[in-house]
Amino acid sequence: MSDKMNVESFNLDHTKVKAPYVRLADIKTGLNGDRIHKYDxxxxxxxxxxxxxxxxxxxxxxxxxxxxxxxxxxxxxxxMGCQTGFYVALINHDDYDDVLSLLQKTLEDVLEASEVPACxxxxxxxxxxxxxxxxxxxxxxxxxxxxxxxxxxxxDA
Length: 157
What we know:
Layout: E1 21-29, E2 35-42, H1 53-66, E3 74-79, E4 85-91, H2 96-112, H3 132-144
Antiparallel strand pairs: 1-2, 2-4, 3-4
Helix pairs in contact: 1-2, 1-3, 2-3
């Protein structure tokens, strides 16, 4: 990786990170001074494991809906194409510890969910590809390692 790329995550050495973690990946300032904070919520170790699509898809729906019960600053929660995590974007919110709390509360809500929101052909582009139990399994695993979320890099990195 010699040339700096435009996409922040393409400049991250994925061999040096240690999932699970939550890191501030970028801050963008708009013309009116609003600031978007983008967090890398890495659930799986890059190039070693990934989330299966039905579970990832359901977790996306659940987090997108349930996170907004805890904050009105959520802009977007988007899955990474590599299926190892999510990007979480918030507006005018730079309190890292509060972001971790928000994610924890949201994932705790996932564990209590009895259905995947908007899991139908009217509201979802691939309604057949969902797994509530798979989403809960991912949430449970990520929550079980809550004390590791602030450590992004392996100790020997």
